[in-house]
Amino acid sequence: MAIVRFFVRLFALIGLLLVVGAVAVVVLAVRHEPTLPAAVVLELDLTKPLAESDDGKFGSLFEHQTTLREVLDALDGGRRDPKVKGVLARFGDDSIGFAQTQELRTAIERFRASGRFAVAFAEEYGGAGAGNRSYLLASAFDEVWLQPLGTLGITGLSAELPFARDAFDQLGVQPSFAQREEYKSFAETFTKSGMTPANREMMEALVADLGNQLVDGIAKSRRLAPAAVRTAMDKAPLLSKEALDQKFVDRLGYADEARDEALKRAGTGAETLDPADYLSVAGSPNGEGPTIALIHAVGTITGGESGKPTVGGMSAGSETIVKAIEEAADDPEVRAILFRIDSGGGAVSASEAIRRALVKARQSGKPVIASMGDTAASGGYWIALAADRIVASPATVTGSIGVVAGKFAIGGLSDKLGIHWDRVQGAKNAGMWSPLHPFEGGESERLNAIIEDTYANFLQRVAEARRMTPEQARGIAKGRVWTGAQARELGLVDDLGGQEQALTLARTAAGLSADAPVSLIPYPPPKSVTDQILDLVSRKGELVGALAAVAELRPLLAQLRPLLAATQGDGVQARMPPMSLGR
């Protein structure tokens, strides 16, 4: 109990300090209203991932994670602000996704078109890993710096997929899954020892298309021939002098020198500001005018509330998202909904609940524009089908129209451990979902009936939303994953672009001009500091217990991670296979 009392007191003290600090910040803000310096250089840290949304979680009290929306707003506002002279960005490895990279490239190009400069710096583009996406984004800047002795890791793309069947055989665990159709490769991670021909065909097509986008983007920005870029990729990683000689970078120098150069270009009195600090003074460029609701679906789609941790990250909870959609639909101030998706799918039942809420919002007169991030596949594509228009980046991973369901039978593992089970049951399929044995007889028939019905409904929804016949929908479905560019050619999405393109369409759908000022308001709104503290205090006992449990279970969780990833969520799943794509 001593450890529990310690954590309770610790959390109470933290809460008190945060409240006092918040009050002090408010008082200081009242006394000294912040102003911008005479000249501003926006400073971007692109060595870390950019969050899709500000979820208001407890960790944000201690460390602010920059969001993609903040960077886009800062660049958009900065190109109209006479005090903003340029942008200085620091790069590292490929921590930012492919679609986000393309969206930021477009924003940088708009920023530069306004007459402002853009300086990119990296100690290494990639280092011990790949630097493809990092450099692709940096190449859109007018001046690219690389530290002496640094390397340029434009090594091209590959895709790596795990296959754990042999490991499960050794453990005595029997994966028992059904899927529709041959490209729906999620279960193959557990049931196969390598790629099937269909899976390999799909992955080769993805790598080829994304590789072409990478080469074309770099060639265009650096005014190089695509053949020269491919030749450099075959030799990469490039040494710093090689990168300079081949015109992939403009200057070799250090971080302080790049910063001094950017401030010199900005003029007397120039200072650097990160996006959050700049927007806190200048305000968002999307902060005035009619309201557009911004709703995010980020992470594995599950029932319940968003933010629950999953093996692959955080969850997009249907309860949270449906509530946000309903509130936006009922709000007379909201003119349209911008629905941002970054999800590889999840539970079909949760996906259908979200899709239904969007359908009802449209029926109430609120246009819905879906904007796809790095991934909007399987269940992520299912929920996009309810939108008036779907916008994807060329590199968005989408499609994967198929379903999978199953379980792991651990009876063999249990026997190896000396734990033997016996059973009685009162109905033929009463033990269908037991984890001790694979599907048998009538259980397999029922599983396949569920899978077939769910897949047929998925195809029907695709056909209706995309104005196809079910046969046409099936021809581009079968669980196959596509890039956004491929999906546009196939009719699965309407437009190519990022959030700004989607926002333009939302304005038009709302009856506004394409460039009309709007207020882009998150639904649900991020929690305030006070609310986060109250949540923390109310959950202190739960948090203390969770800390102790995680410490005890960490070794076991590490061993069971593949199994947990496969069984995340409830019932039939519409999910992408795990993959490392874009290395």
Terminal Cα span: 48 Å
Percent of sequence in beta strands: 15-25%
Please give the largest β-sheet.
8 strands, mixed
> Helices and strands: which structural class?
alpha/beta
Q: Helix count?
A: 21
Structure description:
By secondary structure, this protein is of the alpha/beta class. The chain contains 21 helices and 25 strands. The strands form seven sheets. Strands 11, 15, 17, 18, 19, 21, 22 and 23 form an eight-stranded mixed β-sheet that branches. A six-stranded parallel β-sheet has the order 9-4-3-2-1-10, with helices on both faces. Strand 1, helix 2 and strand 2 form a beta-alpha-beta unit. Helix 3 runs parallel beside helix 4. The longest helix is centred in the N-terminal third of the chain and has 30 residues. The protein starts with a helix and ends with a strand. 43% of the residues are buried.
Short description:
45% of the residues lie in helices and 20% in strands. It contains 21 helices and 25 strands.
Break the fold down into its secondary structure elements and pairings.
Layout: H1 2-31, E1 39-46, H2 68-78, E2 84-91, H3 98-113, E3 117-122, H4 132-138, E4 143-146, E5 151-152, E6 159-160, H5 165-171, E7 174-180, H6 188-191, H7 197-222, H8 226-235, E8 238-239, H9 240-245, E9 251-252, H10 255-266, E10 270-273, H11 275-282, E11 291-298, E12 300-302, E13 309-310, E14 313-317, H12 318-330, E15 334-343, E16 345-347, H13 348-363, E17 368-377, H14 379-384, E18 389-392, E19 397-399, E20 403-409, H15 411-416, H16 442-466, H17 470-475, E21 481-483, H18 484-490, E22 495-496, H19 499-509, E23 519-522, H20 529-538, H21 540-567, E24 573-575, E25 580-581
Parallel strand pairs: 1-2, 1-10, 2-3, 3-4, 4-9, 11-15, 11-23, 12-14, 15-17, 17-18, 17-19, 18-22
Antiparallel strand pairs: 5-8, 6-25, 7-20, 13-14, 16-24, 19-21
Helix pairs in contact: 1-20, 1-21, 2-3, 2-11, 3-4, 7-8, 12-13
